[in-house]
Specification:
The protein is α/β, with parallel strands linked by helices. Helix 4 packs across helix 9. The chain is built from 15 helices and 12 strands. The protein folds into 2 domains: 251 residues, Aspartate Aminotransferase, domain 2 (3-Layer(aba) Sandwich), CATH 3.40.640.10; 137 residues, Aspartate Aminotransferase, domain 1, CATH 3.90.1150. Helix 8 links the parallel strand 5 and strand 6. The strands form 2 sheets. It has a 7-stranded mixed β-sheet, sandwiched between helices. The longest helix is centred in the C-terminal third of the chain and has 19 residues. Bound molecules: pyridoxal-5'-phosphate. The site of pyridoxal-5'-phosphate has 13 residues, from helix 4.
Length: 398
């Protein structure tokens, strides 16, 4: 029977031996085989990428992580899914697997801070040069491609500033020049965008965010096509990257309600934005909500929904009053990460004053000197309560 994604997410991974509706958490380092022949046969199966229900050693994962791999493989329409202990591990896995001395990589200027840092700082030590391009200009990206370009690393939309790019144009260019493509799809999740189906080689999500959804688990998912599979598997097996069975279980549990939660985040966000757009102290909302904007058009072209993460640009003569706004919010926690059930707020310092800050900052995003970016994650609370909370705190902005 053909099933929709909503139905699919509720049904895979039963525990058939114990008759429970959920998979068992299999913690294992040693996996036992009846004979040496069986062990050899099993290792051959793994090498040939055949369907398996367990690995030959716990370092590669357990039956629980295989259950999660299978769900994500279906959701992403992937050849294989590599699981890592944190989201960032998935970014590092892609870079360290595919880039070699003498290569260049093109990185969108609006990627997650540590992604910028590993590209710019760590890869440099291996003689791999990262070149940052303007996410608002395909021409800029095109002009920066050289014979040495190995990978184009895109995050869509970008962290904190939420620019959307014309993804199929990037894929077309990369295929013509035989360049690998990576997309950080944590914001949209494979529910709203499947990067591999539009031609990206790698689709990455921090499973810490919406996949797990409850701010208690960490993990990364790197879904890949056949082209890059072998090279990434080589590094994966030798690096020791893996996800624990306990985290995999929590992420499977989170995925059951991914569709329902995401839809509610989206609905709540639309209601909150309706309030935010009328506030004079907010000069811009960085989220695809205005049909006339370039970002909205690009979002609409590729996505079937949106999530609950956005930024507001606040105009203020006093930074301390923006901090007071954030501090006085009652329902928005102050903290890193997002994608959980709860609302969060954080002031993001994106102005680059020196080389180190540039890694966190933006080269191309233009803002006035009295503008500040506050990132909001709209959670699953009653949106009217969130609006009341925002209204109360906005009065502190001077
Ligand atoms: C867009 C994006 N990519 C990657 C990561 C890294 O994920 P993790 O925190 O699970 O390591 C984050 C974390 O905030 C993120 O926001």
């Amino acid at each position: 029977m053909k099933k929709s994604t909503t139905t699919f997410l509720k049904h895979p991974t039963k525990d058939t031996s114990n008759r429970s509706a959920n998979p068992p958490v299999i913690r294992a380092s040693t996996i036992l085989f009846d004979t040496m022949q069986e062990l050899y046969r099993h290792e051959r199966k793994i090498k040939n990428h055949q369907k398996i229900s367990h690995y030959s050693y716990g370092r590669y994962g357990s039956s629980t992580t295989i259950e999660l791999e299978n769900i994500l493989k279906e959701l992403e329409k992937a050849y294989h899914v590599f699981l890592t202990g944190t989201g960032f591990g998935g970014v590092a896995l892609a870079l360290m697997s595919l880039c070699r001395p003498g290569d260049e990589i093109l990185v969108s200027d609006n990627v997650y801070g540590p992604t910028k840092e590993i590209s710019e700082k760590l890869l440099k030590e291996f003689n791999i040069n990262a070149i940052f391009y303007n996410p608002d200009s395909f021409e800029d990206l095109k002009n920066k491609v050289s014979k040495k370009t190995k990978m184009i690393l895109v995050e869509n939309p970008g962290s904190n500033t939420f620019e959307f790019q014309d993804l199929s144009k990037i894929v077309k260019l990369a295929k013509k020049k035989r360049i690998y493509t990576f997309l950080d799809n944590t914001w949209g999740t494979p529910l709203y965008l499947k990067p591999l189906t539009i031609g990206f080689d790698m689709s990455f999500s921090s499973a810490t965010k919406y996949f797990s959804g409850h701010s208690d688990a960490m993990g990364g998912s790197l879904a890949v096509n056949k082209k890059v599979f072998k090279q990434i598997m080589f590094f994966y097996r030798l690096s020791g990257y893996r996800m624990s069975a306990d985290e995999a279980y929590l992420i499977i549990r989170g995925l059951r309600t991914l569709d329902t939660r995401l839809n509610q985040h989206y609905q709540n966000t639309k209601i909150v934005i309706n309030f935010l757009k009328k506030q004079k102290k907010i000069s811009e909302i960085l989220y695809p909500y205005k049909p006339s904007s370039k970002n909205y058009k690009l979002w609409k072209k590729y996505y079937s929904g949106a999530s609950g993460l956005l930024s507001i640009v606040i105009k203020s003569k006093k930074k301390s009053s923006v901090i007071k706004f954030v501090n006085s919010l009652e329902l928005f926690g102050i903290g890193y990460s997002w994608g959980g059930f709860e609302s969060l707020a954080i002031l993001q310092e994106l102005r680059s004053k020196n080389k180190d800050e540039y890694l966190k900052g933006r080269k191309y995003f233009r803002f006035d000197k009295d503008e500040y970016i506050v990132r909001l994650h709209i959670g699953l609370e009653d949106p009217q309560d969130l609006i009341n909370d925002l209204r109360n705190s906005l009065r502190y902005i001077k």
